[in-house]
């Protein structure tokens, strides 16, 4: 306890660290200010009714950082940027030139790939903004507006999404933690009072076992996320002895830590992004007066409204994206080559290709464990909602998973900054 208090004292005493934390708080305050400014022609009563029992838009509201719930100028949130990042990371696996740019050219190459993601965010934001506004207009949330006003609204929400992407990158560069994750985190936290009030208003004595079960499930999820995030498999590494003149270098032993949940919370965010974008298009196309399109959309809506099929598909996507994200961020071949160049080896394993295959096998087994855990945790809130009929539990469960992961990552980065300053 004394060690924790000492680190908290160092956080507030260190001028640079204090500036970073205050900068993050300032950016998040600006984001919440922008998220409270609505676009023109919004029927607030119809909007509240529309969101009252709509799980799809409740989840979409998480990625908008709470900006969608009042149709603010930042209603798209960081969703377009996340989608663009997914597309670019998929392309790095398909095209060798992009893969070489991302892995071989280091920080410079990753900056170029990030720049491509930024450029791709613009058309995606325009398409998502136009589709979402058309859908909300058909639902009666927006009044009858002319084409010029509609295009102006699309331009406003697109600019809001680009601004939010920039604010997130400012947090990553000049603050502490991942800016995009912190913006989603701030949006979830800002929605907690309304979620609690919704549960309180709908509370009945018969629901006490359900609420008690939800509290137990939330505590279990928090404990599980903490354990799985911190769990790692140490791979022993030995550096060969080298004689230079009269001195001997190397000969030390250390280890390479491989995390069980190497992908963090990103597979959940990726899977939800992939699920939400087609749902928005399907809901929009469902109102098109065409027999073939109507038949296809009715089939897709029936599939998406089936909680069990939807949950299984969600589980598969989370598992797939866990493997995908691990493959993008952790390259066994590159690690094996770096170990060989530095004169290091894994005891009992030949350097080069054998080392790469050995690390790859360990990574696959650990990723399978982490992927199944993330998939089960992601499905639990949906299944609980199907069993209880309380929409807020499904949205709160997904938000809880993201909040715990972001807080863990933020605490570790602050702790790293404090430790660096201690030395």
Please tell me about this protein's structure.
- There is one protein chain.
- By secondary structure, the protein is mainly alpha-helical.
- Helix content is 75%, strand content 5%.
- The chain has 17 helices and 5 strands.
- It has helices spanning 2-13, 15-34, 44-52, 55-63, 79-94, 96-103, 106-138, 147-174, 179-190, 192-201, 208-230, 266-285, 291-305, 307-329, 332-341, 353-388, 391-422, and strands at residues 232-239, 242-244, 247-249, 253-259, 344-345.
- A 3-stranded antiparallel beta sheet has the order 4-1-5. Strands 2-3 form a two-stranded antiparallel sheet.
- The mean pLDDT is 77.
Q: What is the annotated CATH architecture of the largest domain? A: Orthogonal Bundle
Per DSSP, the total helix count is 17
Distance between the termini: 21 Å
CATH superfamily of the largest domain: SecY subunit domain
Q: Output the strand order for the largest sheet.
A: 4-1-5
Provide the succession of SSEs: HHHHHHHHHHHEEEEHHHHEHH
Low-pLDDT runs of 5+ residues are none
Q: How much β-strand is present in the residues?
A: 5-15%
Taken from the alpha-carbon principal axes, the silhouette is globular
* Overall pLDDT confidence: 77
Largest sheet: 3 strands, antiparallel
Q: Label the structural class.
A: mainly alpha
Number of strand segments? 5
Specify the CATH class of the largest domain. Mainly Alpha
Helix content: over 70%
Q: Please tell me the total number of domains.
A: 2
Please tell me how large the radius of gyration is. Answer: 24 Å
- Under CATH, the topology of the largest domain is which? Preprotein translocase SecY subunit
């Amino acid at each position: 306890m004394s060690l924790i208090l000492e680190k908290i004292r160092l956080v507030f005493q260190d001028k640079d660290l204090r500036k970073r934390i205050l900068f993050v708080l300032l950016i998040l305050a600006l984001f919440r200010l922008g998220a409270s400014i609505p676009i023109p022609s919004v029927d607030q009563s119809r909007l509240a009714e529309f969101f009252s029992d709509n799980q799809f838009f409740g989840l979409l509201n998480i990625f908008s950082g709470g900006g969608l719930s009042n149709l603010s100028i930042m209603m798209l949130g960081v969703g377009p940027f996340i989608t663009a990042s997914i597309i670019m990371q998929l392309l790095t696996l398909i095209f060798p030139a992009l893969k070489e740019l991302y892995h071989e050219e280091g920080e410079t190459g990753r900056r170029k790939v990030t720049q491509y993601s930024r450029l791709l965010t613009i058309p995606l934001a325009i398409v998502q903004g136009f589709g979402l506004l058309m859908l909300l207009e058909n639902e009666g949330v927006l009044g009858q507006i002319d084409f010029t006003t509609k295009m102006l609204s699309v331009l406003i929400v697109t600019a809001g999404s680009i601004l939010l992407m920039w604010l997130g990158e400012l947090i990553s560069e000049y603050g502490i933690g991942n800016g995009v994750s912190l913006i989603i985190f701030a949006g979830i936290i800002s929605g907690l009072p309304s979620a609690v009030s919704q549960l309180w208003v709908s509370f009945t004595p018969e629901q006490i076992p359900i609420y008690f079960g939800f509290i137990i499930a939330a505590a279990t999820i928090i404990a599980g996320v903490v354990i799985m995030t911190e769990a790692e498999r140490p791979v022993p590494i030995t550096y060969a002895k080298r004689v230079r003149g009269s001195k001997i270098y190397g000969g030390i032993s250390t280890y390479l830590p491989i995390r069980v949940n190497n992908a963090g919370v990103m597979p959940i965010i990726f899977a939800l992004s992939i699920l939400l974008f087609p749902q928005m298009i399907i809901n929009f196309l469902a109102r098109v007066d065409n027999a073939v399109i109507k038949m296809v959309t009715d089939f897709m809506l029936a599939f998406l409204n089936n909680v069990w099929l939807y949950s299984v598909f969600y589980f598969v996507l989370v598992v797939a994206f866990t493997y995908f994200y691990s493959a993008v961020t952790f390259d066994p071949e590159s690690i094996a080559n770096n170990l060989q160049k530095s004169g290091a080896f894994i005891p009992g394993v030949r350097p080069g290709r054998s080392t790469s295959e050995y690390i790859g096998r360990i990574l696959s087994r650990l990723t399978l464990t982490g992927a199944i855990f993330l998939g089960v945790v992601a499905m639990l809130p949906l299944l609980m909602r199907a069993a209880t009929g309380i929409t807020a539990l499904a949205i709160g469960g997904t938000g809880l998973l993201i909040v715990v992961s972001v807080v863990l990552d933020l605490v570790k980065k602050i702790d790293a900054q404090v430790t660096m300053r201690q030395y």
